[in-house]
C-alpha cells in the first residue's frame, strides 16, 4: 500500500493507492482554512481507517517535493519521514510540476504542456512536459520564468495548467495567443492521487527509493535564506 501526500500549494490532499493491483483507493482534500501540519496525519489516518487499515499496512510513501510553498514542502517531507522511518518504507519524491502534468495525462489530454506554480514577483515555477498516453516526459528542467518568457519554450499549441496559470491567466493569454490552451479548472490544482500514480509507475519500473533520496525541489531559496545570500 502507498500513501501519497500533496501539500506544496494552498490546496492540499492525501491519497491511498494499492501497489499490487494498481487501484486508486481513496483521496481526501485537506481543509483550505487549516494548517496542513494540523490536518495531514488525521486525514491519512481517516483514509486508512476507511479501508480497515493502519500505518502498518503501508509499504511506501510518495510526497510532492515542490516547487511551491516552502512551509508546505517542509511539512510534507517531514510527515513522509515520520511515516517511513519506523519500518524503513520506500520514499518517493515527486515534483509538484510533474504532478500537474499527470493531471492532464490521466484525463487523456496529450501533447506539450507548461505546468505553472506561482513563484510570486510576477513569475512562475515552470515545468515543460510532453504528455503521452502512458508517460509524462520532461522536455526541459524546471525553472523560474516571467509569463512574458513562456513562449520561448513552446514548439506549438501547448496545454497550460496549474495555480500559476489561474493567477496570470489574462497575461498569459495575451502573451501566448492561440498557442496556449488552458486546461479545465479542475485540473489546475495539484492532487495527491497524481503523485501516487507517478510513484506507482516508478515502482513498476523497479525504482526503490529510500529517505536518503528524498530532497525538496527549491528553485529559489526561502525568503529567510535569501537575505544571507551574497
Task: Give an overview of the whole structure.
The protein is α/β, with parallel strands linked by helices and 230 residues long. It has 2 domains: 133 residues, 2-Layer Sandwich (Nucleotidyltransferase, domain 5); 80 residues, Nucleotidyltransferase, domain 5 (2-Layer Sandwich). 31% of the residues lie in helices and 27% in strands. It is built from 7 helices and 10 strands. Strands 3-2-1-4-5 form a 5-stranded mixed sheet, with helices on both faces. Strand 2 and strand 3 form a beta hairpin. Helix 1 packs across helix 2 and helix 3 crosses helix 6. The longest helix has 15 residues. 43% of the residues are buried.
Main traits of this protein?
single chain, about 230 residues, alpha/beta, Nucleotidyltransferase, domain 5, 2 domains, 5-stranded mixed beta sheet, 7 helices, about 30% helix, about 25% strand, globular, disordered C terminus
- The geometry reads as globular
Question: Main sheet?
Answer: 5 strands, mixed
CATH architecture name of the largest domain:
2-Layer Sandwich
- Coarse structural class: alpha/beta
Share in helix: 25-40%
Helix-strand topology string: EEEHEHEHEEEEHHEHH
Low-confidence stretches: 224-230
CATH superfamily of the largest domain: ATPase, nucleotide binding domain
Q: Whole-number average pLDDT?
A: 92
Number of strands: 10
CATH class descriptor name of the largest domain: Alpha Beta
Gyration radius over CA = 17 Å
Question: In CATH terms, what is the fold-level topology of the largest domain?
Answer: Nucleotidyltransferase, domain 5
Q: Can you tell me the number of structural domains?
A: 2
Strand numbers in spatial order across the main sheet? 3-2-1-4-5
Q: How much of the polypeptide forms β-strand, as a percent range?
A: 25-35%
N-C termini distance: 45 Å
Note the total helix count: 7
